[in-house]
Amino acid sequence: MSVAGPSRTTTKPGLFSGGFDLGRLLLEGRAFFALIIIIVVFSMLSPYYFSTANFLTMASHVAIFGILAVGMLLVILNGGIDLSVGSTLGLSGCIAGFMMQGVSLKVFGVILFPPVWVVAVLACCLGALVGLVNGVLIARFKVPAFVATLGVMYMVRGVALLMTNGLTYNNLGGKPELGNTGFDWLGFNRLAGVPLGVIVLVVIAFLVSVMLNRSAFGRWLYASGGNERAAELSGVPVKRVQILVYVLSGVCASIAGLILSSQLTSAGPTAGTSYELTAIAAVVIGGAALTGGRGNIRGTLLGAFVIGFLSDGLVIIGISSYWQTVFTGAVIVLAVLLNAIQYSRRAKKPVSTGGQTTSPQLGGKA
Predict the structure, then answer these.
(1) Long-range contacts of 198-206 (CB under 8 A, 24+ apart)
(2) CB-side exposure of 103: number of CA atoms within 13 Å?
(3) What are the beta bridge partners of residue 364?
(4) 36, 44 Cβ separation under 8 angstroms
(5) HSE toward the beta carbon, residue 18, CA cutoff 13 A
(6) For the packed helices 297-316 and 321-348, what is the interaxial angle rounded to 10 degrees?
(7) Mutual orientation of helices 85-100 and 145-164 as an angle, nearest 10°?
């Protein structure tokens, strides 16, 4: 008498016999494919779009959003959100403009004109301070990230308005006789034909990528974002990681504010309004999960370029700014929808183990 054993049915995970999954490829590479489609479509609609000079110009605009998005990625990987980056960008520019105009010390009867590198360092320290406030409120006092950063956003914007009385600092080029020239170096200078803002973005992205993939902090960040309680039980300094990601996000916002003020040669208290939403959109388009623990630098940069190249392309072909808002919003909604599809597929996909099916959600045999 023969006893039939458990039948082993092999199911192909992909659409083709070799295991190639076209749907998964399109989902995971959606930001790249979207960027290619944007370039092809606008190149057909305008003869001025597809050129090296235009790409470099658009890339210099993307650099600001990209730097903000890199900092936002760290926060989102931790399962948080930072709504204060746009205000921090604006305040950093105002601080730079204030110091470039000269710091008056009435007690000594002198006016100090600090060099540009001092201005940049102090602006970054300010961004780190704003991020520290966010991190302490969230990690130590358990204030929800949305509420904490929303309150800090209004506070920082208010400080910028009080500093400038609602006005704008113009002519930040400085004067040679005062030794405070060179602020426009970030915005206008190029290295081997590439705008310095783009080079700064590449350097920051590279350093953060190494940190995420090659350091203990990167492993801690992914672990605490994926499951905070399990990470804490495993010895991960969850609170320290949480505070540090907000500090880094604030520093990135300050660097972006310096580059933007340098490009405009002016600094105003309303600069960076709604930029936090653009940064979040870039991270989401790049495939990061808003619940934390999933995302990477490559996708975030692609998301920033998708938004930047789309916005500039609409300007080049003469589309109304109102329609630009509609298109950008539609892209964000589509990206969130695709994220939901991607991660729900990954969560529900059964794992076949020799005739027994294991569900990742149930953690056992189905």
Answers:
(1) 198/56, 198/59, 198/60, 198/62, 198/63, 200/63, 200/67, 200/255, 200/259, 201/62, 201/63, 201/66, 201/67, 201/70, 201/301, 204/67, 204/70, 204/252, 204/255, 205/66, 205/70, 205/297, 205/301
(2) 11
(3) 359
(4) no
(5) 2
(6) 150
(7) 20
The tokens of 146 are what?
Answer: 């949305």
pLDDT digits (tens, 9 = 90+) for 298-356: 999 999 999 999 999 999 999 888 888 888 788 888 888 888 887 776 665 554 444 44
> Tell me, what amino acid is at 309?
F
Inter-CA distances, 358 with 252, 352, 363, Å: 43, 6, 7
| Structure confidence by residue, pLDDT tens digits, 38-48 | 999 999 999 99
Q: CA 336, CA 160: separation in Å to the nearest integer? A: 33
Q: 351: which DSSP letter?
A: E
Per-residue b or e along 336-345, where b marks 16 or more CB atoms closer than 10 Å to that residue's CB: eebbeebbee
Q: pTM of the full predicted structure?
A: 0.87
> Please, which residues have CB within 8 angstroms of residue 192's CB and are 6 or more apart in sequence?
none
Q: At what angle are helices 275-285 and 85-100 packed, to 10 degrees?
A: 130
